[in-house]
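User:
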Amino acid sequence: MTQRLDPFAAAPAQMKAWLDMSLKIAPSIEQSLLELVKIRASQINGCANCLKMHTAEARKAGESEERLYLLSAWREAPSFTARERAALAWTEALTLVSTERAPDEVYAEFAFEFSEEEQVQITLMINAINGWNRLAVGFNLFYDEKPAVARETVAA
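Assistant: Predicted structure:
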């Protein structure tokens, strides 16, 4: 795969703004849950770059290898909490919004598990990771370095 362009070099101000926004979206949500959301959306979108980055971040946040392996089959795996299941179902519904249409029953479970503020934070995170997936897939991005490479590039 050949990278088409480096968006951090092509539009540094816009990418810095996008990155800054992404890092500030969900301050009250536990990091491990956010990483599961990012990984699940990235699995659906086929984003190797984000899968590499967020599985590494999930491990740093204490996520087990077993749960990472089972994430694509989370409905059948007993190792996910009701809160995680609600977030994952909402992630799938919004990532596949053109076909899923965010069903009422999925939202009801999501709303039961999360406060209104948390609902907004997670929904914004789902939007952000889907945006990152589209940047990475669209421009054939695959950073071989640590995830901080993007932040360091923008900060320079």
